[in-house]
Design a protein that fits this description.
Length: 160
């Protein structure tokens, strides 16, 4: 697997202007194109929530339950990615293909951290003023337990 960071080259959190919206749209579209390559339409997201609470908020690990979202239509996946990339909205979350193990998680300022198969072409930005692409092999966990697993900073602190 290969990991990439796709992000606006400027701060987007707390900024609601046309440039920010265009950047968020471009990042989401780059991710969409990568996830859907080769006709893959088996994307899902699992979002955890406390019982009785809407997914997307703060949850407690000891009582939270999973909510599975099927993102098989182009419209559903595009909307989910847009919401997930945008730091000025809530909702969305990690997306994984059950067919190809391609996956994406999201940062806090418009970043998408995308994991693709070795034989996939790398993502490409059509406008580097709105979205840059950087290969980030340091983000991959050294395991095949979850192909496409992106490391969490706490993993190193815990000795994992």
């Amino acid at each position: 697997m290969k990991a990439y960071k796709i992000a606006p080259p400027f701060k987007t959190f707390g900024i609601a202007d046309e440039r920010t919206s265009d950047a968020i749209n471009l990042v989401a579209e780059i991710v969409f194109e990568c996830l859907r390559r080769g006709g893959d339409s088996f994307q899902y997201s699992v979002v955890w929530a406390n019982p009785g609470e809407e997914p997307g908020g703060i949850c407690n690990a000891d009582i939270a339950v999973p909510h599975v979202f099927r993102l098989e239509t182009e419209d559903a996946l595009r909307k989910w990615l847009r919401k997930s990339v945008d730091p000025n909205t809530s909702g969305g979350g990690d997306v994984r293909s059950i067919a190809t193990c391609r996956t994406v998680t999201f940062g806090y300022d418009g970043q998408a951290l995308l994991c693709l198969r070795h034989d996939d072409a790398p993502p490409v930005s059509s406008d580097l003023k709105l979205a840059t692409v950087e290969e980030r092999p340091d983000l991959l966990g050294e395991t095949d337990y979850f192909d496409g697993w992106i490391k969490d900073d706490s993993d190193e602190a815990n000795g994992s």
